[in-house]
């Protein structure tokens, strides 16, 4: 979270998602270089754990946005 972001919107801190290794071990270990691995380089269980943890992060941010009134009821794309 940058000072600039917080200057624009003080509530932005609420939506920051620190990657705690204890809470999201697969996601916190992921690196952008993984994009260049060949297909099949990761096992099914590894990919499933990564996707599950990513879903949890997205859900937590969406819930925070919704409870703050930043996502109006009925205006979600899902």
Global Rg: 16 Å
Number of strands: 0
SS strand fraction: under 5%
Task: Report, as a whole number of angstroms, the end-to-end distance.
Answer: 27 Å
Shape: extended
Order of helices and strands: HHH
**Structural class determined from secondary elements:** mainly alpha
Number of helices: 3
- Low-confidence segments, given as residue ranges, are none
| Number of domains as seen in the coordinates | 1
Round the mean pLDDT to the nearest integer and report it: 82
Helix content: 40-55%
Main sheet characteristics: none
Structure description:
The chain has one domain. Helix content is 45%, strand content 0%. The mean pLDDT is 82. The protein is built from 3 helices and no strands. The chain starts with a helix and ends in an 11-residue tail after the last helix. It is mainly alpha-helical.
